[in-house]
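Final report, Chapter 2: Outcomes

The project's central promise was a pipeline that accepts a single protein chain and returns its three-dimensional structure in a standardized token representation, suitable for archiving and comparison. That pipeline is now operational. To close this chapter, we reproduce one record exactly as it appears in the project archive, with the input sequence first and the structure output second.
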Amino acid sequence: MKTLGHWLTSPRRRTAVAALAGALPVAAFPGPALWWWAYLALVPWILLIRSAPTFRRAAYDGWSGGFGFMLAMHHWLLPDLHVFTLVIAVLLGGLWAPWGWLVRRLLADEGVPTRGRVLCALLVLPSGWLAVELVRSWQALGGPWGMLGASQWQVQPALRLASVGGVWLLSFLVVAVNVAAAVLIALPASRAPAVAGLVATAATASAAWIWTPRPDGEGQGEARIAVVQPGMIDGPDLRFDREEQVTRRLIGQDVDLIVWGESSVGYDLAERPDLAERLATLSRATGADILVNVDARRSDRPGIYKSSILVGPAGPTGDRYDKMRLVPFGEYIPARSLLGWATSVGKAAGEDRRRGAGQVVMHAGPGLRVGPMVCFETAFPDMSRRLAEDGADVLVAQSSTSSFQHSWAPAQHASLGALRAAETGRPFVHATLTGVSAVYDASGRRVGSWLGTQASTTAVYEVPLADGVTPYVRYGDWPVHLALLVLAATALSEGARTVRLRRTAAAPLGPPARTVHESPARPGH
């Protein structure tokens, strides 16, 4: 250990080790999908930070680890954004600098932290992590892609917890387990509060499993929903032809809704009535409405929109949703006047897409209410929650990920549907152009098989419908609010502590000394 500590005295080496430690949690996400690894992956990073010689170095370790996490989580962007991927990772990594300061403050190497301080760490450090996830969830900073709790998308007890507090609650508990594990390894004298934290986490998961209401599917029936995945095809005309061809396979299969992927139609349907008629003909032949996604310049207003449009036997029904949250650099460039140079080093958007004004619930087929989202929007838990509040029976996401076929991105994107389903108690359909397409029931369990990135086909899913309101839909992001209160209380406590230390330092140690020229006053003088 002394040799390792001496080796880490080099700032460059320490920075590199911190970046590697920060990248470790990514193995818990798809593609590797080692969900259990999430509960230990932060331990090396935490142990490194707590050994920092100064608070400034701890903040650097937090920043470096955040850089490693962001770069590893978004490494598949490198072929498109090139050096700008590194710039983004550096900027977003800085969000973990205050978290590094907190780790050292609560678990520092000097002395042995008291039990009270360890218990405080089990509450404050997960709260600090949630604050980081909250800030980076802002759309302009890249959105909530890679939230730590999202690594638990295939664990049923975790999905039950998501129905209570969303992915936020999962992130909180995963970080708490990592903190407890770090204490068990590095602070043997403080094992009691660490074990208590682990027991509390297990008890919380067990209570959620037993008492949290399950989605009510009794009497709700099923919806037969078909996903059309044309595969990698260049050009909107060839893509449309392929989608039309595979959709015809659904004739006679008694489906209730057909879903095409993101950018499945490359022309405004008002300007191309021939395409609208071909879609209407497909709707009549299959007996189902078709939800397409138009990526084109609109004829009725300026700008390019990505729009979910429902087409029935008579043509477009009038139900339309314009994508609201756009992918930074992919669909628009934040502060284009300052960052427009990104278009010269990668495949950044040459022209900004326009945003929609609000979410929409569509009425498709016999009484089926559909809540559409487009691509990146499935990463935002508040969007699916709003659709559930507005009465959607099924959440439908239209995506592409065609630029990232040979990376972890398609599987990571498809996995988000399980969380959104569990949070809202509504089934989730994730339809893509090029894979991975997936469907989940209202508990977040997979329905049928995934359509991988090599598939060019269609698939019909028997999607069980459900009713009821989950605690997360009813109460919203309460774990975030609780975390912010914890951090506010911590800040006030630290402020009061600083004031006390300053007063102690400023106070005299004893009565002032008297000089030989000073003597007590005598009576009569």
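Archive annotation: The longest strand covers residues 289-297.
This record, like all others produced under the grant, will remain available to the consortium after the project formally closes.
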